[in-house]
Write the structure tokens for this entry.
Amino acid sequence: MQIGDDIMGCLGNCIWFLCGGILSGISWVASGVLCCITIIGIPLGMQCFKFAGLAFFPFGKEIVYGGGVGSLIANIIWLLCCGIPMAIENACLGLLLCITIIGIPFGLQFFKIAKLALMPFGAEIVG
């Protein structure tokens, strides 16, 4: 990475946070709190908190998907509980932002988070 990339990533994260990232991050935190109410849901909630950081500041970070059978089972439970509504929320926000040329980079970040909302377990944040 070059210095210019770091500056643009920082600028993108600042604009992102003020123009929609805060809503996305709060929804991840709220899902984490709801999942942590029960003892069984604590692993789901901890994953939500991990990805809330990505939702608040996504520029300069990538998601690498992997995992095994445990991740698959957790992803199925996640989808049934709160994955689908969160993916729809982020996809709709991404579509709204992609209407304008200026909003396309931000819309692409929402699409990245929407995909993560469908399969968060076994995914790692790199960057």
Observations:
- The mean pLDDT is 84.
- DSSP finds four helices and two strands in the chain.
- The helical segments are 3-36, 42-56, 69-97, 104-118.
- The CA atoms of residues 6 and 60 lie 8 Å apart.
